[in-house]
Amino acid sequence: RVQGWWARKWVRRFAYLFALGYLLFIGVWVTFASGLPSSEKLLSYQPPLPTNVRGYDGQPVQTFARERRVELSFDEYPPIVVQAIISAEDKTFFSHGGIDYPGLFGAVGDFVTKKATGGGRARGGSTITQQVAKALLQDDEYAVSRKIREAILAFRLENTLSKEQILELYLNQIFLGRNAYGIQAAARAYFDKDVTDLTLPEAAYLAVLPKAPSNYDPVRATERALERRNYVLREMHSNGYITEAQWRQAAAAPLGTIRYGSNEKFRQQGGYFMEDV
After folding, report:
1. How would you class 130 by CB atoms within 10 Å of its CB: exposed for 0-12, middle for 13-18, buried for 19 or more?
2. Nearest alpha-carbon partner for 111 in 136, 144, 135
3. Hey, which end of the chain has fewer CB within 10 Å, N or C?
4. What is the pTM assigned to this prediction?
């Protein structure tokens, strides 16, 4: 009889703890999920695109943009570009549920530690889906609350969009330096090429830029850029995307980037009159 009493007591305790945990989860979800984009908005979302001014013959004569971007569908991105991004940013992208839980809890713990000790900025620990969520939130607040909202939105993204749709958003959305947003715009800004014409080492270089474009600037930080590009190439080989011969040949190639702005087709055309138009 005593054993039965103890068993019932522990069952009640576990039930209370479970109920408390569930209520806490609901409370956190309601608190932080309010105001996040709905599933319908996620399905219809499109990133900002440039404004083109055309002449009387219909040909573009000038373009204006705060975010210079060319939007492509997922199928228009060649495999080496997708494989380079996956290898650089999130090798388990196609298998995880949108959130890197060890990375998320590690980032939160690191944040608390850095706040307590007055240290620097905490590490990220974000999947590609979380990075898309961060871009959609347009919130750079350095706080645990932002990471929680980002995680909730990442979960919503994974349950609303396919992996290919999420990756398409990422490839079109990310800032890669030189006022280029998205891989296609970056391919033109750094190599004066379309993504379909990128070589393996060029694709690997663009894949290093999402973390911090200025840290891997091809002019000011050439050695660091080469080292990071070659790391991406090693990861591509490790993940089975390229052969050892392809890896070593690509790692020996120079960066081969063009001078910033040398491919600006519409520069100075029309001047202030065109801006007024």
Report:
1. buried
2. 144
3. N
4. 0.78
3-class SS of residue 122: coil
Q: Mind giving me the DSSP string for 163-204? A: HHHHHHHHHHH-B-STTEESHHHHHHHHHSS-GGG--HHHHH
Dihedral of CA atoms 238, 239, 240, 242 in degrees, nearest 10, equals -70
In the chain, the amino acid numbered 207 is: A
What does the H/E/C string look like for 126-157? CCHHHHHHHHHHCCCCCCHHHHHHHHHHHHHH
* Cα-trace Rg, the chain: 23
